[in-house]
Amino acid sequence: MNALEVLDLSFRYGRKEALKGVSFHVGAGEFCALLGPNGAGKSTLFALLTRLFVARQGRISVMGQDLQAHPRTALARMGVVFQQMTLDLDLSVARNLAYFGALHGLSARQSAMRATEVLERLDMAERARERARDLNGGHRRRLEIARALMHRPRLLLLDEPTVGLDARSRAAITAHVHALAREDGLAVLWATHLVDEVAPHDSAIILHQGAILQSGRADALAPPGGLGAHFLALTEETA
Amino acid sequence: MRPALRAMTAILTREALRFVTQRERFLAALVRPLIWLLVFAAGFRAALGLSITPPYQTYITYEIYILPGLVAMIQLFNAMQSALSLVYDREMGSMRLLLTAPMPRWWLLFCKLLAGVLVSILQVYGFLAIAWAFGIRLPPLGYLAVLPALLVSGLMLGAVGLFLASTIRQLENFAGVMNFVIFPVFFLSTALYPLWRMAESSRLLRDICAWNPFTHAVELIRFALYLRLNPESLGWVALTFALFLALALWGFDPARGIMTRKTR
């Protein structure tokens, strides 16, 4: 069973067509990069996948659960990291995690246990008592990823998670999420416009002007090291 | 504890913690009504004569009359501030965290609403304590009896704020809306003058005040402070709450309302 299945998804803002018949799937343990320039429709797709918007055409299912018919069951199986930071900066790392755990129905004891697990997983165990405000950009992002894992989702959605970070933090976060997919069997959908974040064995979807231009294994879409040039050429060609 | 109650406890605790860490917000919430009480009301004490009207059983000073209106004013400003923070949260993203939780959306929004009311009640009791220290005192049991009235009126004003938040697309539009809401709602009510006073100057003004749901929130609080229930006001407040909550929930529905419109 695929962790995420999207079938013929379309969406409009008034007369403007933001997504046009998008279909793809992400399997367990797969790191899927959703590549697209700004305005390609990535954020709209994320809003639909997280049910912030409801599509009038198309179908989304998470671990076999239809998002429209069973929103709560489907949402309970996914973790989300939004493009904009959604931490409460005045609360500690532990409290941010506990708040999220409670929103997912976890008891205080379960939350504390999972918080220890996810912070260790992301090398942040020693920062549990620090205020989110005192963390640097990279650690804040890692905390958001840790938070998204609190309820042990099977699908992790990340919308441009490395925007605004320095090269070292970007590399560390990309490596952490690749490890989550590889070692924990987590399905990952990673939206980005930064091609260097995609490994050759990752799957990639190139989204442009609301439609999928190409999809497949990154190293099959372009020669080694050539995905960036291929992506640019493809999106310019259709602009 | 059931998951829905855990979520509610978490949302209430988070709001209370934010309130405690934002001392400026607490002080700002108290300064405004205190200026009205200690400066405005003191100045108008001699100018405004008040006859005996329910729930008062004797002549009262203007400070005593204005006190319930200022309590409602605290709740009104708090509701608008909560709405503003909702618009901000929606633009900045943290609202998404709440809306993508696997709970019914109406429940999450209701919890958020309740959290705002909790904060407003803390502000009200802070204000009443300062008023008490300045000699403006109410029946001792009134401080307790007013609690359910504060809850109901806070929910109504919070629902109005939630509805406004669901209709406003961008943060910068909110200040204008607040001015169009707060000032007419406050001044066209019984917060500062009784209805019969309004009627002396204009019948139309009196009727507008009588229809204003904020008037009924003020009267509900006023009667509760004197250990009395005003059923008409309770009915108006409950009805307004139900109406605006329904409209707000419609506005936050992912298939309708603001959620499907593009914010730039």
Globular, elongated, flat, extended or rod-shaped: what is the shape of chain B?
Answer: globular
Strand order of the largest sheet of chain A: 6-7-8-3-9-10
Q: Helix fraction of chain A?
A: 25-40%
Number of DSSP-assigned strands of chain A: 10
* Low-pLDDT stretches of chain B: none
Q: Tally the helices of chain A: what do you get?
A: 8
Low-confidence stretches of chain A: none
Structural class call of chain A reads: alpha/beta
User: Mean pLDDT across all residues of chain B, rounded?
Assistant: 86
**Span from first to last CA of chain A?**
35 Å
Strand content of chain B: under 5%
Q: How many H/I helices of chain B?
A: 11
Shape of chain A: globular
Total of domains of chain B: 1
Question: Main sheet of chain A, how many strands, which sense, barrel?
Answer: 6 strands, mixed
- Biggest beta-sheet profile of chain B: none
Percent helix of chain B, as a range, is over 70%
Q: Rg of chain B, please?
A: 19 Å
Q: What portion of the residues of chain A fall into strands of 2 or more residues?
A: 25-35%
What's the order of the H and E elements of chain A? EEEHEEHEHHHEHEEEHH
Walk me through what this model shows:
The complex is a heterodimer of chains A (239) and B (264). Chain A has 239 residues and is of the alpha/beta class. Helices cover 35% and strands 26% of the residues of chain A. Chain A has helices spanning 42-49, 71-76, 93-103, 108-121, 137-148, 167-184, 218-221, 227-237, and strands spanning 4-13, 16-26, 31-35, 57-62, 65-66, 78-81, 155-159, 187-192, 203-208, 211-217. In chain A, the strands form two sheets. In chain A, strands 6-7-8-3-9-10 form a six-stranded mixed sheet, sandwiched between helices. A four-stranded antiparallel sheet of chain A has the order 2-1-4-5. In chain A, strand 7 (155-159), helix 6 and strand 8 form a beta-alpha-beta unit. In chain A, helix 3 (93-103) runs parallel beside helix 5 (137-148) and helix 5 packs parallel to helix 6. Chain A is globular and about 50 Å long. The N and C termini of chain A lie far apart (35 Å). The mean pLDDT of chain A is 89. Chain B is mostly helical. Chain B has one domain (3-259). Chain B is built from eleven helices and no strands. Chain B has helices spanning 3-21, 23-44, 62-92, 94-99, 105-133, 142-167, 174-187, 195-201, 203-211, 213-225, 231-251. In chain B, helix 8 packs antiparallel against helix 9. The longest helix of chain B is centred in the first third of the chain and has 31 residues, at 62-92. Chain B is globular and about 55 Å long. Classes of the chains: A alpha/beta (239), B mainly alpha (264). At the A-B interface, helix 2 and helix 3 of A face helix 1 and helix 4 of B.
